[in-house]
Amino acid sequence: MDIADLACCAARQLHLGHGTVSLGTSLAQVRWDGTDGIGDDSELSWAFVGGGRWFLDTEQRNYLGFGGSFGDGQTGNQINLIYHFAPEFLIGGEYVIAQRENTNGADGTAQRIQFSTMYSF
Questions:
Q1: Of 53, 56, 72, 91, which has the most beta carbons under 10 Å away?
Q2: Model pTM?
Q3: Is 33 exposed, middle or buried (0-12, 13-18, 19+ CB in 10 A)?
Q4: Nearest 5°: CA angle at 94, between 89 and 95?
Q5: Of the candidates 116, 60, 77, 76, which has an alpha carbon nearest to the alpha carbon of residue 93?
Q6: How wide is the angle at C-alpha 111 spanned by C-alphas 32 and 30, nearest 5°?
Q7: Nearest to 61 by CA among 94, 85, 77, 44
Q8: Main-chain dihedrals φ then ψ at residue 66, nearest 5 degrees
Q9: Contact 88, 121 (CB under 8 A)
């Protein structure tokens, strides 16, 4: 997939009592028709995006994250949780669901569950 020639975005971050929310837009020229051939279609794509964190403690170490996008031929949403068991050890989990339509009309839905751990020493 080539994302080239034109890309721009605008964003605004709001700080709330126990978290942050970010809102933005994006504009990009995308070239891909779903095949590996020459002469991929070119299309100008746009999206509204938003996301943020809601801190679950006063030290702002544990949080619930969220995000979403809605745009020309694509949508996506995600939610994640990061939790520190100790200052040097954290675990996290995330769920993502997205839908997309390519310039050739092919479409589909993707879902992902992912887990992570991190130990800092």
A1: 53
A2: 0.69
A3: middle
A4: 165
A5: 116
A6: 15
A7: 85
A8: -150, 155
A9: yes
Nearest to 32 by CA among 4, 8, 56: 4
**What pLDDT, in 10s, does the model give residues 99-116?**
887 767 788 899 999 999
**59 backbone φψ class: left, alpha, beta (φ>0; ψ -120 to 50):** alpha
Closest by CA position to 62, among listed 49, 38, 80, 50: 80
pLDDT at residue 6 is higher than 60:
no
Strand partners, 90: 84, 118
What letter does residue 87 receive in the DSSP assignment?
Answer: T
pLDDT digit string (tens) for 30-58?
Answer: 655 555 555 556 667 778 888 888 999 88
Tell me how far apart the alpha carbons of residues 32 and 3 are, in angstroms, rounded to a whole number: 9
